[in-house]
Amino acid sequence: MHKQLRNVKFLCFMMVMLSFVEFAMLPPAYTYANNSSELAIQSLATGFRESKVVRQDGTVWAWGANEDGRLGDGTTDNKLYPIQLKGVTDTVEVTSGQSFTVALHKDGTVWSWGWNIYGQLGDGTTENKSSPIQVSGLTDVTAISSGAAHTLALKSDGTVWAWGWNQYGQLGVNITDSKLVPVQVEGLTDVTAISSGLSDGAAVKRDGTVWVWGNNRSAESSMGTLGSEEWKSVPVQLSGLTNVVAVAEGKYTTAVKRDGTVWAWRWNQNGKNENKTVPFQVKGLKDIIAVSGGRGHNLALNKDGTVWAWGGNFTGQLGDGTTDERTDPIRVSDLTDIIAVTASSADHNLALRKDGTVWAWGANEAGQLGDGSTESQRYPVQVNFAGGDGKPALIGGATFNDVTGHWAESMISWAYANKVIDGYQDGSFKPDNNVSEAEFLAIFLKMFGVQAAGSNNHWADAFYTFSEAHHFPIQGIGNAAELRSAFINRETVAGIIAAADGTHLLKDEAIQYLLDKGYSSGKTSATVVGYKGRDLLTRAEAIQFVKNVKDKGMTLK
Fold this sequence. Notes:
Residues 395-458 form the SLH domain. By secondary structure, the chain is an alpha+beta fold. The protein has ten helices and 28 strands. It has helices at residues 2-20, 220-223, 409-417, 437-446, 461-469, 481-484, 490-500, 507-517, 528-531, 539-551; strands at residues 41-47, 50-55, 60-64, 79-84, 91-96, 100-105, 110-114, 129-134, 141-146, 150-155, 160-164, 179-184, 191-196, 200-205, 210-215, 231-237, 244-248, 253-257, 262-265, 280-281, 288-293, 297-302, 307-311, 326-331, 338-343, 348-353, 358-362, 377-382. A four-stranded antiparallel β-sheet has the order 1-2-3-4, with no helix packed on it. Strand 13 and strand 14 form a beta hairpin. The longest helix has 19 residues, at 2-20. The protein is elongated.
């Protein structure tokens, strides 16, 4: 009875989604990161109001929605910071559907856990699983992609396998019965890339052609039957598109050609719900190496490391600081050196930077941005990987792997010993990275015994409460998260230190105060000009300021 009731609820939910919001439950899109040993993160994935990353050590970390216990930590509390998923190891890629997760192991086997009413876990049963179980009979898998309740797997021999929900023929086996174990998608060979939609699938062959199957309402223009409720239960070739290397489902289904151009179908680029029967080139994009699709927006990654976005923007998911819809791609603000991107089915995004940091923006009602808040962000914010106490502390040690010989090495060791700082999960400190306002306040105030308190909003709330009470000249008052995450310059730091010392000065006067008190000797000389107030502060310089004021006996006024 319980199973029948949940089945009815799921089908009702699907019908509502298909009728009113196309692709409201899209599968997680993903791209591989550079598999460099210098990076702590090797791949990204996003699900419905949740985010996941796979680390180089094969562990999986997740944050965001957890009301159904999908994160496997024994609770149903949403997670505002990443936690490690227990019992999940040797992983290279993860993908999520509606309340279930599928993981690809480095040995080519596939494992899954979560909801299983349609056999989407692929273990031959319909029983839910709270811990990973192996998908039956699958080996030599190189890529995976999940829809609402089905999954596709690409094997090294170029064949595609599918299992789970099959009401619209999304398994590609010429019937519409759900499958509890993987079955081979008919007629597909020499496949190099796959992508799942809510209830459909797409594949790219080695010859650059694109093949599609499944629900024809959610992919009608790609199958050439406009206005029809029919579906295709076996793959058919998409006409008018060749030389494709990658494909991604989304409001627009997008494809990257070998020449770096991006092509789309399903919806017109003029922003109206007008289907396009023939793929069209997306304006203004070139040198693109990856694409990803969300519920109502798309992302494109340029080979120069910049990210471009277009489509819906009501939660700031385009990352341009506005909520204005964009029919043409616009560059996501402040993102450089990006090597992987993913857009989610719940209007948020992740990006992996070359230095190993993860950035997020867009919707955040379940904490899926991992910044310690539940506020949507119109600009990218850095994901704060949590320690055991749930704070945005980073994993470090007595000796960091990137400070030997650095000019601030001894000060960094001093700050670590005094519990002012921690390092990153890869054992580094990144002394020359710039510092946000929130990060500087945390470093500075922790030296004087001010500690972060638990908060359901932003991890630095305690530091901002103290700073506001002492009239520090800061920008992030009132939980303006985008301002808290903005890099701080040396001029602003001078004003903060002066205020902490009981003197409220700004700009050149604050700089001169620091020079006179001996709290700074400047950057190039002990003058206002040599102080270089407009330069952004680095992590090493932040430690230097803290050490200087402590050595001078400064106390908080």
